[in-house]
Amino acid sequence: MAKLEKRYDFVLYFDVKDGNPNGDPDAGNLPRIDAETGNGIVTDVCLKRKIRNYVQISKGAEAGYDIFVKEKAVLNKEIDDIYKELGINADSKNKAKGADVEKGRAGMCKKFFDIRTFGAVLSTGANAGQVRGPVQLTFARSVEPVVALEHSITRMAVTSEEESEKQGGDNRTMGRKYTIPYGLYKAYGFVSPHFASSTGFSTEDLDVLWDALTQMFELDHSAARGLMTTRRLVIFEHQTALGTKPADELFNRVKCEHTGNVPARDFSDYTISLDGNPLSEIKTVVAL
Asked: What InterPro entries would the database entry show (predicted)?
């Protein structure tokens, strides 16, 4: 695999229609909203989950593309299994030390795409140290304030005979569903070749990341999330590992303007441009 030698910064735009892009469990699963500005929020953890899900589905059992943080996984067991494969006597009680930690860390990076991409804390079990990933994402924020709607829903069934008797045979139960009518969100991302060299994150892995960012919502549809779609991915490719310009200066070249209906109810109500030129392609790579 080719070594990553250039720095990358990117801007990701995605939208949601009639769905909840990222519910807050501390607020009854309401969509996350900045209380001061009214702008919607989608956490970086939520976006990483979607990237992981895409890679897990698209790559399947392909070597080197397993996912460490997957649903219902037992993380310490994954660490223990790596040490068994490497022939090292280490587990949660007999923790690895010294060179064995480095060997275990390298083994975890080689096997798991999300570890060599985002990093991970691997010191909870047999101890494979900590990994700082080369790819980092910010929270996504809606470009304009959003409103969360509450909908009453009815289920024409109950879960038990006892509940049916209490309902008098009506068997209807009420619930709530929360959605955002429409919101266009923007997130920023960074790819560091310095950290990539320590995790083994390659140019091939980078291509998988770009594919995931453009297609991750296509494999993650659900009634709760409504219609979510990646709209634009603008990638700034530096010519060196250190980079040629500050990320903030590059991000300011990408503008989003409200040019259609108010309030917005579709992506066509916005225009996204780079240096004043409207972008029509989902993915745009800018060589600096």
From this structure: Cas7_Csh2/Csh2, CRISPR-assoc_prot_Cas7/Csd2
